[in-house]
Every structure is written in C-alpha cells, then in structure tokens.
C-alpha cells in the first residue's frame, strides 16, 4: 500500500479539533526517514492521548534504537481524541504516524506498548481507523504484524484475538531481533506469507503468537490446558531481560514536544527491576533482577539529554529510586553540576526513609521545592506485613518529622484500598496515621501551617504476583471503606482541615481487574465495549462502568468470576504459559506467607530466597557501588 | 538588565501551536542556545520572557513579538542566529534588536492579516466586503471562555480588500480557486480577529467559505497617521539604542 503522507487531507480537519498541535509532529529530535531507505518499518503506538504517550520511555527508547539500525525506520502514532476520530471517519483519513503522517497500515509492524490494560479499546480504534482487520486471523499479507509489549503484555490473553504477537519484558534486544527476522523473510521473497513469518518469530521462543496455542476449558469454566497447536512452537514463552544498562544508554536524544504533555522533563532510568518484594506490585515481580545503571553513565546521559532538549527538569526513574547504591553521590553530583542553572531534579518513587529527606534537599537546591510523596500503601502495621511493605509507623513519623522540620510544608501519602485480608479497621487506620503525621509535624515545627494529603486507590490483583490467586474486593466494599475513611478525616476538628483526601471510586478497578486476569473469552467484552463507543478508558470522563457491565452480560462473561473469585493453587491461570521467570511454587508460598504475616527481605542485601528469576533467565543482580564520582562539568 | 526584542514567524503546521506551546518551546530553545536569560526571584523562578499579543491557535504569523531579559549584554545578531537554530523549523526568528525606551505593546496598534479561502466564490466575496464596509456597525457573537460575547466587528477594520491573484494553500485541491482577503485591523478590546470579520461577512451577505480559512498575520505595528502605512515597531529601538545600525529596512506594508 502507498505510504504517501496523509497530511494534506488531515490539515483541513485540524482547525476543527481540540489541541491540533498534538497531531502535527515535528518534535525536536524526531526522525523522518525516506520510506525507500528502509526495508523494515515499525509504527510504534502508545495507546493513549499524545499528551500521555509522548513522554513514555518504552516507546521513546525503541523509536531511537530502531531508527539507529540501518535500513530500518520507526515512526510513532497515538490515540486520536473522539473529535478527530469522527472527522477522520467522515473524510476517510486513516490512522497516521505523527512523524511523516504515513498510514499505519503501510508499515511492517504495528507495535503497541501497553503500560495498562485500559488502552485496549484505543488499540481497536487505531486498528479500525488504519483499515487493519480487528481480528488477527482475518488479516492478510498486506497488513502489519500487530505486536503488543509493555507490562500488560505479561497477560495478553484478553486481547489475544486482536494480536498477531506479543513480547514480554525489555524491548531493546528483541525489537532488533524481530527486525532481522522480518528483514530476512522479506529478502527471501516472503516465503509462506504471513503464517511463515509468525512461525519464524514463534519458534525463537522469544515471541508469543497466540494463534499457535489452543486453550481448553473445564465444564465449570476454568482453564484445562493451554498447549501449542503445531510442532516447533515452544510450550512456554520467556521474558526478555537486558543485562548491563550501561550498554543501552537510551534515550540519548529525548523527544521534545510542542504540545503540553504530562511529564515535561528529561527522564533517565537509573535502574530496572526491584526486589523489595511488595506483593501487590506487578512491576516489581516481572522486572527482576535489579540492574543498576552506573553513576557515570547516568551523569553522561543527563548531560547529553539536557543539552539536546533544553528541559529544565531531570527525573531519575526506577521503581524505588532511593535504592540505587550510589544515589547520594548521584544526587549531590548532579545538584553541584547544575547549581545556579534553574535545573531541578526529581526522584519519583521514593520509600519512606529519613535518608530520602537529605536526598530531597539536594534535589531541590536548584529549582522548585515541590511536595514530598511517600507510599506506605497500607494503613495498619498488619496490612503492611500482608503486602510486604516493610515500613513501621515509627519510620513514617520519623521521616515526615524530618521533612517538616527541614522546611517542607506538604507531604503526600499513597495508600491502597481493597487489599487481601483487609478490614474496615485497616483502612480507618489511615486516618489515625495521617493525624499522627500532622501532630508530629506541628510539634516539630511549632507551626500549624503544614499539610498532608492522603491519596488512595483501589487494589487490583495482577498476574505474576503472589496476589494473582486473590479475590479482588468488590467495588461496594471498596467504596464503603473509602467513604468511612473520608468521614473519619472530615469529622476530626483538630487535624481534619490539615489533611487532604483524594480517592477514586472502586468501579474502574473492577474493569481493570477483569482485563488484568482475564482470558481469551474476555476479548468479546473488549470488542463489544469498543463497538458501543468505548474509548479512552483510563480517563474518568470517558470511562463507563455501565458500558463494560452491559457488554460483559451480552458476551456471557461473569465479571465476578474473573475478579472477586479466589483461585485454587492448582487452577491453570491464563498466563501460566508465559514465563516471567518467577517460580510458581515460590509465588504460592509467598501468597500463603502473606496471609499468615510472613515477611520477605530484599535479596540485594540478604541471601537469595529462590523466587526463581535469576536461574531461569540466566540473569543476576547488578548493583554498585562503583566508587566513581560525577566530575563537575562546565555548564553553559 | 538588557532586554532583547524578537520578531518571529509561526509558519506551516506550526501555526497549530497555542500561545502556551510557543512559550514552552521558546524557553527550551533559549536554554539550548545558551542565551543568559534572567530569572524572576522567588519560590518558583521563571525566565524573563514576555509576549505581545500572540496570534490565535491555528493562525500563522510573520510578525509575532517577544522580549527576553538577559543577565549579560548580548549581540542581537548572535542571538538571532542562536535562537533561530534552537527553535523547531516553522518557529523562525526574523529580527532581534536591543530594546529602547517605551513598551513594545504600545506600538502594536494594528495588525495586517491575510485570509485565504480555498474554494470560495470571488464575486460573492467582493460583494460581501462592500456590504461590510458600507455598514456602520456589524455586531457579531463569539464564544469565549466566559460564554458567548457580542461586539461590533466593523469599527476596528481600517481596510478590507480582495486583491487580485490566488496563491497556493496547504489545503488547496488542484484546480480549485482560492480567494484572498487582506485586512488591517485595529487592536481593541474586545479584540476583533479575522474570524470575527468573516462572521461579519456571513451576516451581511451570507458569505461562508466552504473549508476552514487559512489565516496569516503579515505585520503588526504602529500606524503612520500621515501615510496610513503600517510601520516596523522595532525601528524605534534601532534608532535609539547604541550600535543600532539600521537593520533590515523597516518593512512598510501597504494596505
């Protein structure tokens, strides 16, 4: 199909839509290559609005790596808002990339990165606008390979019918490997068509092709067996792990958007993986082991990224950034380097630990002093033991006292509601904790001008975690507890006005739960919701719980069975054939330990507890300290 | 503190940038270019960059203006090169001068606009323009953030013509005609924009273009009372600042 720019047809539509700049591309450091200069071409999608998708690290990294390959090009596409979707349908304008405004259907691969399951309906919109059949089995040789990645791809079963393939884990090396498989197949004249290409990908063991696996069910609806339906297709598909992040220093040239986006900063991953062992945390389980990027590589990436972008904020990303073995030297080194330049540093995801206040002080030296955020997650000591978030009330009070007495005025606390074994008292414990925080802050500062905000969301059990067997709390229970907590905070005359409260109702969590632990039968619900107009399910103004429930009923899918039902040890889970490296018996034991209050240490500092990842995947923990320091640079 | 006045253009697909988009892009470009921009003091320091009367989102411009405060004196020619090199193509720096006395905003009395109307009928356009100019008062309504607002679109329009010739436009279909309107509009409160004038043309003569118009601001500046011509607002800075060699001769845009 032709890859000519559709921009002349798009341009007359842009004056009629909200924020048209998000559709025009032209970002600094974006890449437009000649179509004919490449023989393998990727369209990469983040299935949400541009303002959310552009800052996504996964897409940015793959975009850069693929465009660095010879004879390969990659462009980006995002979900279009309903106003433009309607105009595109009326005028016959297909889903396009923002780089060269080429139609998505002209590419070899349509790669979609799912951080969350709530992007599934947006993928269907993009496929449909692109003119690509929604159902993978109906696609022909001219259609791209539709490939999913990202954390949600660790259970892609609910969207299995719409996918040609899925990849688990770090994308850097496997994206290159897939490119070479496609190149070879095209060079040979596409022998065997689409089917053979998918076979070549599946045989490698690193790419999951759902159509090559059959799922059998018991009469009661549980899965009986998931098995390959052809020879040479492996029984299990394994995740990918990039070892030595210093060898992969991406992004080098950050995309700088013209439109406003949710993160306006240059972000560097300072490590991947987390072994803190929080039982609710899918990211911490599926990205093991911990692999640090060295202080010197981070320093060089920050220097280049700031120069190339002009951003005035640097984010040091990871799942628990203060755990980097040289975070102190890194913070001080960067703060020294950017002294007097109005470049601020931020450290998302920090633990409750007094040491982090010193870090925060370093980080705010050159820029704004925003609030501090900590995530105790559970309101009572008992609850925190269940989720293995090893933070005592004493730790928390000590940490916030240090923050308040050093001039911070606002502390945010994150919690979850609906955790396994949770009672009303556990949630009300959050109110007690918040009051103690304010009391300690007032005593430490002698001032009443301090605040804390309690932010709380519904817990969703995720695949590949010890809670994958747990029954999810129903939304009535979650909403009742959230309301009781609100009332308890509001009622308090002494502290209530110093405590902010932000919460989301429990209904969206049920849909997220259905999509997280669903199997192939849930695909019919996703399609029905999409056909009924479901779009942008991650946005509360677009999300409709009623639409999801009505679609489930039409599709004959029992939502409770997928969400609130607790699973038995021997039940075949929809993702059991997808290998995140975690030993199933260890996960089950950890689930049992959770219920009985047993805790797990972090294997970075204590002996291995046999979660299974390193031996299965041939990986190992990579941490410092390297002992090196950041050298001061001459800053313009 | 030295202040630099910058004339820049917003062209092509970058006409879809909003004022906020441009201000972020300029702040980043200033940092990348290494221009020693001054920052405000206080809790949340901001670079000292101010904007005068930005063209609306979707409207192209050859004459947008901003002012940068710098901590050490800079050569305006160097700033022009560096800043232009750091801005994305489509946001193009046309002129930089050191600011003289007086506020730039005070000099931006009128704007000259070009409005391209692909597929519109020329005779109908000419008739609508005549009727509009003949009217003493054309009340139009525009939806603002505060709700619908009614005001007169006629008084601010100093000149309105339908010049000969048609140019190519981005949205133009080959073989399709394109009517061009030129107008000089006084800056007033509430601001009268080219789309308000188009609304007026629809009201007086039922003239409605078939596709969205492509609007470009050609110039902004003081109006020469004698000649009625639009003058370059930066000429005054060139005349008064030291080393102020005559820059690109002030573009006097005739109406």
From TrEMBL, chain A:
Xref: CDD domains: Radical_SAM
Top-level lineage group: Bacteria
PROSITE patterns in the record: RADICAL_SAM
Domain Radical SAM core as annotated: residue spans: 260-502
Annotated InterPro entries: CHP03960_rSAM, Elp3/MiaA/NifB-like_rSAM, Radical_SAM_N2, rSAM
Pfam families tied to this protein: Radical_SAM (PF04055), Radical_SAM_N2 (PF19864)
PANTHER family in the record: RADICAL SAM DOMAIN PROTEIN, SLL1084 PROTEIN
The protein, known as: TIGR03960 family B12-binding radical SAM protein
Species: Nonomuraea harbinensis
Upper lineage: Bacteria, Bacillati, Actinomycetota, Actinomycetes, Streptosporangiales
């Amino acid at each position: 199909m032709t890859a000519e720019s559709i921009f002349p047809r798009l341009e007359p539509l842009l004056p009629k839509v909200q924020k048209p700049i998000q559709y025009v591309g032209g970002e600094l450091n974006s890449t437009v290559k000649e179509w004919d200069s490449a023989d393998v071409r990727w369209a990469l999608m983040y299935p949400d609005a541009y303002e959310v998708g552009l800052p996504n690290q996964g897409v940015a990294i793959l975009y850069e790596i693929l465009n660095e390959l010879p004879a390969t090009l990659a462009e980006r596409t995002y979900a279009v808002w309903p106003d433009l979707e309607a105009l595109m349908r009326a005028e016959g304008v297909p889903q396009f990339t923002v780089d060269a405004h080429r139609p998505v259907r002209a590419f070899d691969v349509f790669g979609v990165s799912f951080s969350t399951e709530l992007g599934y309906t947006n993928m269907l919109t993009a496929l449909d606008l692109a003119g690509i059949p929604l159902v993978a089995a109906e696609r022909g040789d001219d259609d791209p390979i539709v490939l999913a990645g990202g954390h949600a791809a660790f259970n892609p079963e609910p969207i299995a019918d719409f996918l040609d393939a899925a990849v688990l884990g770090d994308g850097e090396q496997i994206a290159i490997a897939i490119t070479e498989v496609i190149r070879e197949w095209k060079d040979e004249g596409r022998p065997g068509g689409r089917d053979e290409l998918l076979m070549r990908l599946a045989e490698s063991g690193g790419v999951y092709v759902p159509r090559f696996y059959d799922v059998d069910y018991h009469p009661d609806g549980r899965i009986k067996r998931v098995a390959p339906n052809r020879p040479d297709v492996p029984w299990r598909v394994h995740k990918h792990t990039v070892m030595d992040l210093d060898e992969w220093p991406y992004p080098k040239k950050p995309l700088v958007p013209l439109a406003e986006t949710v993160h306006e900063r240059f972000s560097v991953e300072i490590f991947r993986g987390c072994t803190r062992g929080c039982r609710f945390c899918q990211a911490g389980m599926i990205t093991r082991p911990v692999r640090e990027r060295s202080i010197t590589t981070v320093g060089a990436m920050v220097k280049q990224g700031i120069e190339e972008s002009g951003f005035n904020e640097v984010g040091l990303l990871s799942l628990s950034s203060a755990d980097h073995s040289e975070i102190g030297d890194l913070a001080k080194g960067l703060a020294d380097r950017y002294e007097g330049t109005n470049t601020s540093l931020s450290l998302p995801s920090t633990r409750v630990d007094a040491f982090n206040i010193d870090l925060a002080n370093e980080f705010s030296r050159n820029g704004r002093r925003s609030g501090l955020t900590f995530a105790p997650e559970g309101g009572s000591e008992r609850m925190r033991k269940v989720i293995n978030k090893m933070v005592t009330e004493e730790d928390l009070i000590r940490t916030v006292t240090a923050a308040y007495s050093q001039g911070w005025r606002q502390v945010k606390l994150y919690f979850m509601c609906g955790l396994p074994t949770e009672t009303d008292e556990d949630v009300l414990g959050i109110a007690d904790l918040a009051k103690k925080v304010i009391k300690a802050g007032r005593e430490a500062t002698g001032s009443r001008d301090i605040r804390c905000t309690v932010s709380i969301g519904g817990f969703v059990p995720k695949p590949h975690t010890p809670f994958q067997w747990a029954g999810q709390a129903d939304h009535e229970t979650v909403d009742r507890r959230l309301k009781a907590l609100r009332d308890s905070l509001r009622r308090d005359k002494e502290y209530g006005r110093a405590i902010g409260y932000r919460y989301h109702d429990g209904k969206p969590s049920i849909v997220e739960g259905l999509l997280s632990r669903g199997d192939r039968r849930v695909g019919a619900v996703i399609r029905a919701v999409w056909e009924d107009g479901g779009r942008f399910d991650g946005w509360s103004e677009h999300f409709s719980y009623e639409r999801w429930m009505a679609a489930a009923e039409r599709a004959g899918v029992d939502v409770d069975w997928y969400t609130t039902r607790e699973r038995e040890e021997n039940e075949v889970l929809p993702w059991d054939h997808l290998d995140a490296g975690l030993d199933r018996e260890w996960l089950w034991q950890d689930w049992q330990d959770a219920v009985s209050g047993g805790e797990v240490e972090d294997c970075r500092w204590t002996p291995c507890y046999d979660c299974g990842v390193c031996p299965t995947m041939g990986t190992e923990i990579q941490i410092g300290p390297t002992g090196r320091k950041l050298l001061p640079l001459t800053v313009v | 503190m030295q202040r630099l006045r910058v004339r820049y253009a917003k062209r092509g697909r970058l006409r879809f940038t909003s004022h906020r988009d441009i201000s972020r892009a300029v702040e980043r470009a200033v940092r990348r270019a290494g221009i020693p921009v001054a920052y405000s003091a206080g809790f949340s320091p901001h670079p000292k960059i101010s904007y005068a009367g930005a063209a609306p989102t979707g409207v192209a411009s050859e004459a947008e203006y901003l002012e940068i405060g710098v901590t050490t004196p800079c050569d305006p020619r160097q700033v022009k090169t560096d800043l232009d090199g750091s801005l994305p193509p489509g946001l193009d720096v046309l002129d930089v001068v050191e600011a003289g006395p007086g506020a730039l905003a005070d000099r931006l009395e009128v704007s000259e606009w070009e409005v391209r109307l692909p597929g519109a009928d020329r005779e109908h356009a000419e008739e609508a323009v005549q009727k509009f100019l003949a009217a003493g008062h054309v009340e139009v309504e525009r939806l603002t953030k505060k709700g619908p607002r009614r005001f007169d679109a006629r008084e601010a329009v100093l000149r309105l013509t339908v010049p000969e010739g048609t140019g190519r436009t981005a949205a133009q279909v080959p073989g399709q005609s394109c009517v061009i309107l030129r107008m000089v509009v006084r800056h007033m409160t509430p601001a009268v924009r080219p789309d308000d004038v188009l609304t007026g043309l629809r009201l007086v003569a039922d003239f409605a273009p078939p596709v969205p118009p492509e609007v470009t601001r050609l110039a902004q500046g003081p109006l020469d009372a004698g000649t009625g011509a639009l003058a370059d607002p930066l000429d005054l800075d060139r005349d008064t600042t030291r080393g102020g060699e005559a820059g690109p001769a002030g573009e006097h845009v005739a109406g």
